[in-house]
Please model this.
Amino acid sequence: MRYLASLAILLSGCAGLQLSMVDSAYRAPSNVAVYFTVDTNGGEPVAGLLAEDFQISEDGHVVSVAESQQTIINPELAAEHYTLLLIDMSGSVSESDQVPLIEEAAQEFTSALEDHQRVAVYAFDGAEDIHRITGFTRSSGAANAGVGRISSFNPQDPSTNLHGAVISAIAELDTAMERSRVPLRFGTVVVFTDGTDHAARVSAQEMADGIEGSAYDFFAIGVGDEIDEGTLGDVGREGYVMVSDREAIRAAFTEISERIVQMTQRYYLLSYCSPARAGVHTVTVQATTEAGSGSLTYEFDAEGFGPRCNPEQPPPFDTSRPGAAPRTHGRRSRGQRLEINPNRRRPAASSAPASAVDTSSDPEAGAQ
Model:
């Protein structure tokens, strides 16, 4: 097994697409694979591309699709995506009439994501630690069912430890990533809150430093008159929704869940059989859509390559690296406000009666 000796991203200055390398690998008999993201130059994720939407060239010469058998492998063979939903259950929320609506919106949110990634739900109040509602699990529908515990949650401290909760959420994701058995791991934190930090256990700067230093994506949803838009922008670096109408809460959760799914589906694992049999070669992968085109390049060593290649084989990505994969896009200093249609909604998910805190003995819980 050999790993790519060097990686170099080449972006076309006038193209409409940006391809960003995540990882790559090659091995005998002649397998070459690259894992990358596709976005527009404006930063919007590009999902749904097929193998024929990509052109592969080696040393400037187009590689025949028939000869290379280029294909898109199911990326779940090499990567896992995690989303942690962090819900404000401080006194101002838990004592309001919004809880059933929040619970319903959160169930729709987890239902939308569970087919694509692992989802966990935590609550926070004024206490130092966040409270697990349901942990990361392999069980289909587990996170969705666990959200039904929100309505019976009783805060330990009615204050709001927003800054500390975000730091704790990052730590929970760190732990989940370290336990994962796949080589590539990606995380997202989504924060729902109705107020600013009052507990002052952790400063705003400490929270900002934690976000800046992590590899995860961050979204935020704010509701009510108390929430400060600047705070939402500081938390939701990949975007935030601010709603004053409680009826728009569901639409806000829908907007964020759809964006997360799109960001998950912007990852592509392209594999092919190289015609090269010796020497170091430069590969260019170019994507072309109605939005334009873009490309990336990298190098591989074909020493010992030969026939009988199967491009469907999972690539030999490095499994020894702990934690999340590096980010493929820049970090904004403050997130962009996302506009929503309050009438958008998904069918409500069914709830399951349960206790307020996840005491499941499921061995998969806690991010296996």
